[in-house]
Amino acid sequence: MTGRRPEDVWGSGLEEGERRLQRSVAGLAATGLLGGIEIFFGITVMVVTTAAFTPAIGEQGAHVLGSIAFGIGFVHLTIGRAELFTENFLIPVSAVWAGRGTVRRLVVMWSVTLVFNLMGLTLFAAIMSVGGVLTPDSLHAAGTLADTYGQRDWLPALMSAIAAGTVMTLFTWVIAAADDTAARVMLALLIGFVLGVPALNHAVVSFGEIVFGLIAGTSVSDVGDLARNLGLAIVGNFVGGVGLVFATRLTQVRGEPGETPR
Fold first, then answer.
1. What b/e sequence results for 191-204 when a residue is b if at least 16 CB atoms lie within 10 Å of its CB, and e otherwise?
2. Do residues 246 and 169 touch, judged by C-beta distance below 8 A?
3. Model confidence over 17-71: pLDDT tens digits?
């Protein structure tokens, strides 16, 4: 890990945020689509691992092992430089705050990235749900996971989403602070585990897990549950990511001796 000062991480983040905001809609669509696909492969590995170990150690223990495997999707995402909607709650926001981009460009980035994240997830949920691609036990595990999100009441779903937005935006900061690939890989595996074990309500991840169960036909949730959870997840992720982490990191950097972030 690195010992970079907070103000150094913030300064490099401003440059990266400005770069992201200047990308074309086609570029945003491409990184968003790939981000959804890469996270779905993490979901696939998670349900296959869970199904494989459930007979030996039970559903709960198997879920823990599956959550470790889920981090593989975040490794692909981080090293391949694709993006999730929630990865843009800190760095581009800081660039807009510093006057290096506009709110309009930020909203376009959020909207395009989210739409194409969801498209990538839905496409590969359909592919992986075709009979014979995965075992019936794996598809059953996908349905169980989908119902973990789809059957939650609104308050725990919202609170879980706030936690997920907080965790994901903290991940964005530590990835920016990491100097080498090995550290980023380790952090990506950890974030997958932290999101996966308690089934935190990350808008993109939970959408992928619910839509997988729906298309596979192994979930008791329905499209209404999918839409309700997605709305709650988006709101909660914003509160956690922008409302808590961005504001706190800004205060942290401004509190450094002799430093006022641009």
1. bbbbbbeebbbbbb
2. yes
3. 888 889 899 999 999 999 999 999 999 999 999 999 999 999 999 999 999 999 9
Name the residue type at position 204. Answer: V
pTM of this structure: 0.91
Q: Which residues contact 146 (CB under 8 A, 6 or more apart)?
A: 209, 210, 211, 212, 213, 214, 218, 219, 221
The Cα-based distances of 155 to 145, 160, 204, 252 in angstroms read 19, 8, 19, 30
- Residue whose structure tokens are 């959870």: 229
Integer Cα distance of 157 and 149 in angstroms? 7
Residue 12: strand, helix, or coil: helix
Q: Which residue in this structure is represented by tokens 């897990």?
A: 209
